């Protein structure tokens, strides 16, 4: 009976012919007219899972060995590890890790950025802004230890809290900047860059009447 009902499927997928029971949708019945069933919405299916690991040593005394060992134990493939050494203001390997995560997620792969501890990604506003980037790209976060230990979905509470902190931090910086400007105005101080005269006459007029003392020795 199975061979009669599923002949076309066996031709397309020969491995099905060896199965005793071939599952079929409820609408598929012998003798019924064929109709195309609804297809899954695009972008809702994933074609696999991947973990991208990131490790960073912020001081000379710190070693990457512990972080790398824990990342490998968590299932991160060696070729998906990114390392930033101490002393750098920029973090090129973190930028590469985020870019790779975006690319893999766009291709339908479920991706998680894995770090030993959340402090390895940054603190305060830097961490919140990174979380916003990952959430926008649909990339998960996983911390192996520390206060935020665990796997966190982009729509989860950790991302929500970090986004709120980011907004609060920006508002705080904005308020402090405006307060500083207002204080400067009250004290008669100029705000902004000092305008430099472009012409030689303008420079002379600016410094006319001033006295310069040269000390040679």
UniProtKB/TrEMBL annotation:
Pfam families: Resolvase. Residues 50-188 form the Resolvase/invertase-type recombinase catalytic domain. The active site is at residue 58. GO terms for molecular function: DNA binding; DNA strand exchange activity. It comes from the Bacteria. The keyword Zinc-finger does not apply. Keywords: DNA integration, DNA recombination, DNA-binding. One of its GO terms (biological process) is DNA integration. This is Recombinase family protein. It comes from Nonomuraea deserti. The lineage of its organism: Bacteria, Bacillati, Actinomycetota, Actinomycetes, Streptosporangiales.
């Amino acid at each position: 009976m199975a061979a009669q009902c599923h002949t076309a499927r066996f031709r397309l997928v020969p491995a099905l012919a060896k199965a005793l029971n071939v599952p079929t949708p409820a609408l598929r019945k012998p003798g019924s007219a064929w109709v195309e069933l609804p297809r899954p919405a695009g972008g809702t299916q994933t074609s696999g899972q991947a973990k991208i690991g990131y490790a960073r040593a912020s001081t000379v005394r710190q070693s990457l060995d512990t972080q790398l060992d824990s990342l490998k134990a968590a299932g991160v493939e060696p070729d998906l590890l990114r390392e930033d050494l101490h002393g750098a203001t920029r973090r090129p390997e973190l930028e590469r890790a985020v870019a790779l995560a975006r690319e893999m997620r766009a291709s339908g792969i479920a991706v998680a950025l894995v770090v030993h501890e959340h402090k390895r990604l940054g603190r305060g506003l830097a961490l919140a802004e990174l979380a916003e980037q990952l959430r926008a790209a649909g990339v998960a976060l996983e911390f192996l230890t520390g206060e935020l230990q665990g796997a966190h979905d982009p729509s989860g509470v950790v991302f929500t809290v970090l986004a709120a902190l980011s907004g609060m931090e920006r508002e705080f910086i904005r308020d402090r900047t405006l307060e500083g400007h207002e204080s400067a105005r009250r004290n008669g101080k100029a705000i902004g860059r000092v305008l430099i005269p472009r012409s030689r006459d303008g420079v002379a007029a600016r410094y006319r009447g001033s006295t310069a003392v040269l000390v040679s020795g």
